[in-house]
Structures are given as structure tokens and as C-alpha cells.
Amino acid sequence: MPLFCANFAIRVPHALIHSRRSNFIPNHVASSFLLFLDSKKSIGSSKPIVSLSKFNQTHLCSSTMEDQNQLVLTSSEPEKYSKELEVAVRAVQMACLLCQRVQDSLVSQTNGQVQSKDDNSPVTIAGFTQKMLQKEMQQLQQNPEIAPRFSVFGMLSSGQHNNWSVQATVSWILTEYFGSENVSIIAEEDVRSLSKADSSGLLEAVVKTVNKCLSKAPQFGHEGPIKDLGTSEVLEAISRCNSTGGPTGRFWVLDPVDGTLGFVRGDQYAIALALIEDGEVVLGVLGCPNYPMKKEWLSYQNGYRRIMSKLTPPTSESWEKGCVIYARRGSGKAWIQPLLSGDKKFLWPNSARQIQVSSIDNPAFATFCEPVEKANSSHSFTAGLAHSVGLRNQPLRVYSMVKYAAIARGHAEVFMKFARAGYKEKIWDHAAGVVIIQEAGGVVTDAGGRPLDFSGGTYLEGLDRGVIACSGAKLHEKIIRAVDASWNSSSL
Ligand SMILES: Nc1ncnc2c1ncn2[C@@H]1O[C@H](COP(=O)(O)O)[C@@H](OP(=O)(O)O)[C@H]1O
Ligand SMILES: [Mg+2]
């Protein structure tokens, strides 16, 4: 199902768009083409096909699945944000490819073990907690030259290098298509430490990774840069992500790698990109490169899941691990695409299928998911809630916004997060997931039953206790009531 191109006005032969190789046309090329049509007032017609006054409503886009190599010009009102969505999905697809490469090399290098610097004793990556990670990451960011306490420097700098590379790549693509004056991004990574002269090794690695990723752009329907980006261009792309968000205007929200701990452990992580306009999330895209082929595998240990996916060939109903899911506010639809593999070309909408939340509303059959790290959400509080509402299944503990993806796909029914008092949830950890679940038919609120507020800058201001996402209203109500009943006796 194409997301736009509902009414076709005229088909344009590919050859006419000779200035771009891709089937995905940035604004400035679309505009010159439309001007060309207008000036000719032609192709067999005495009237202009597209008037300048209609230009803003006019849309060049890739076509249906059967007709993907042609461009279609529509003169009807395009669906709002459809172009933004398509660009965002392509950018996230590319970012997934980048992350997969980095994670694969990380996993093969570390082989699940790292050495402690203190006494050379082995420390498993699985034993490396969120707290340790944050401390080491902070140190690495503040002074990349100081060797961290654990010889996980390679692992951490790979994680950090990957975050910056994704941020630069996505920022560059958005800017290329919408123009720097139209792109404002709020994102997790800060450019300051990377631009320090003494982190030049890391910076060089980031520049290399970004260029390697952008060299694949034509495969994804993008042109890519004419020549490799230099250091200053990469730093500029990262530093462009300096929006502070807020209640008005339009800005993108990017978490280049959500679930960094999952990423460095070779486990689940997500690339999350959303667009916010006047405080409301209008579209969301989640790249989940390790989302397993079968839903049962979500609960498997990572190493075992890797073996299983190598042994099990994909069927006509499934594809190999990994997916990108997305939704546009108000469409009532959410979609899933496989990741692009091998040398295939990305042809929008890349075999997208619609997804929906689960119809299970009996808690006895429902599954709830929560963060792996109990430092991020109280496992004991959610265990009490689960018991009181009658959720009998074991909790599904998964890193990152892959939990939002699991609800939207109907692979779990509830997601709960209750962080310690004083922790402020950041908008990039939720924005994309919230709109996707809502459009897939689910409900997401805080524990007071109010919608999450994305208009307050970096944080979800005014969040009442925690985040509750459910496949349906019945389960949601039950959980909200259970939170009220047990909150005062909790230690949160
Ligand atoms: N003490 C804490 N409490 C709650 N959330 C935290 C936290 N410390 C970090 N986080 C957030 O939890 C996210 C990971 O989510 P999860 O625990 O569901 O995997 C992190 O995203 P990043 O990994 O992008 O930094 C981070 O933003
Ligand atoms: Mg995050």
C-alpha cells in the first residue's frame, strides 16, 4: 500500500528526471521539474499541467509496488507528512544497516567477554550493568583519552562511535531532503566531546563509518553526497541536532541507538525517529535490527536467539530478523517492513504490511514487557501490579523501544515503566513508539491516564509516576486502577 499517490494526475517517465538517479526526489529537484512542466504548458495540453500556485500541494513520489520504478506526479492534496515519513523510513533503514555492521563486529571481537583492567579477571558483557555503562560512557565522553576502568574501551567507543555515526547520517539525510533551514533535530548525542581535538581517532572512525553508510545511499533511493563528507561536515550534521524541542514549531526527535546496553551486549536495541509539530508527535519510525523472526524468541537469551535465527530459514510469512515499523498520526494504520538485505534496492513501500495490536484483553493470557535493567524500572513494583491484575505470564524483559514495537506488532499486550523517583523520562525514548502503538490500535498514557506530553522540551514534563502502554483500553484501565491501589505502599 503506498502511503501517498492516492490520485494520479500524470505519469512521468523516469528518464525525464535525469538529474537524479534515485526514485526519491528531494524538494529542489521536484521544484525544478514542476517549473519545467509549467513552462512547457505541455505534454499535449493547452493548459499548464501544474500551476505554480498549486506547487505546494503537488507531490512527486514513488508509486505502487507493481509500478515502483516510475514516478508519479499528483496534483491532489498529498496526505500530510507522507513525504516526511518516507524520508524518515529510508533514513532509519540505512541507520539499521550501519548499526548491524558495527554490532556484528563488536560481538565477534568481544566474544561475550571483556577483561577487567583492575585485576585482569574476566567480566562478561552480560555482567556489565547500565550503571557501569553510564559511568564509563560519561568518562569516555568527557575525556576520550582516559582509559576506562574496564578494558571495554573498544566496546564502549564502538557504542559511542555508532551513536554519533547514526546521528550524523540521519541528520545529513533529513537536511539533504528538506533543506537545513527546515530541519530542526533534538537528539541524544552531544557533539562537544567528539569535536575535541584529542578525540580525533574517534572522529576519524565516525567520519569513515558515515561515509561508508552514505555510499550505500543509492541502494535506498537516495543520491548520497557527491564526494565523501569531511570532518567538518560530519560534525556539522551532528551539531545540527541542537534543538531544545518545545510546544511550538516542527522538530525531529532522534534516539540514534536506544538501548545502548542492549547494543553493546549484542542484544536488542532500536533506532527511533519521530517528528513533532506543535507539541504533538505526528509520525514515528522505529528500526529494530534484531527483532527476531518469531515472537517467542524475544524472550530467548541473545546467544541462543542468534543460533536459532541462523538455523531457521525465513518463510513466506516471515523474514530474517529485523524490521522497521512506522505510523503517521491520524492514519489509523501502522506498518512494518523487513530490513533491506544483500544488494537489493529499496523500493517504497518495501513490502510493507499493516500491523495491529493484539486483541487479547484477558490478563490471564496477556504478556507484559519491561526494561531488562531494574535500575530503569522497578521490577518488584510491576510484579505486584501483574499479580493484582492477574497477568500470569512471565514478564518479557527487552532492551529499548523494541518493547513498543512488540506491543504494536501484537507480540505482547502491556509495557510498563516505573523509573526511580527523580528520574525524568526523555522524549526520544518514547516519541516514535507512542504514535506507532496508538495508530496500531493501542493506548499509551502515564499512570494517571493522561497522554504523554511531548511539548515540554527534552523531558516528558509532568509525567505522572510511569508509562503504561497497552494493546487495549480494558487492560489499560485495570493497570491504572492497580497502580492507584498500590502506589502509596510502594517504595517509589
Ligand atoms: N535510571 C534510569 N531510569 C530510567 N530510564 C533510564 C535510566 N537510565 C537510563 N534510562 C533510559 O532508558 C533507556 C533504555 O531503556 P530500556 O531500559 O527500556 O532498555 C536509555 O536509553 P539509551 O540506551 O538510549 O540511553 C535511557 O534513556
Ligand atoms: Mg534511549
Automatic annotation (TrEMBL):
Q: Which reaction does it catalyse?
A: adenosine 3',5'-bisphosphate + H2O = AMP + phosphate; 3'-phosphoadenylyl sulfate + H2O = adenosine 5'-phosphosulfate + phosphate
Q: Which residues form a coiled coil?
A: none
Main EC class the enzyme belongs to: hydrolase
- List the Pfam families: Inositol_P
Which cofactors does this gene product need?
A: Mg(2+)
What EC number(s) does the entry state?
3.1.3.7
State the protein's name. Answer: 3'(2'),5'-bisphosphate nucleotidase
User: Which example biological process does GO assign this protein?
Assistant: sulfate assimilation
Q: Which InterPro entries match?
A: DPNP (IPR006239), Inositol_monoP_metal-BS (IPR020583), Inositol_monoP_superfamily (IPR051090), Inositol_monophosphatase-like (IPR000760), Inositol_monophosphatase_CS (IPR020550)
User: Keyword annotations for this protein?
Assistant: Hydrolase, Magnesium, Metal-binding
A single GO molecular-function term is:
3'(2'),5'-bisphosphate nucleotidase activity
Q: Which residues bind Mg(2+)?
A: 255, 258, 429
Give the species this sequence originates from.
Answer: Camellia sinensis var. sinensis (China tea)
| Keyword check for Acyltransferase | no
Q: Which family does it belong to?
A: Belongs to the inositol monophosphatase superfamily.
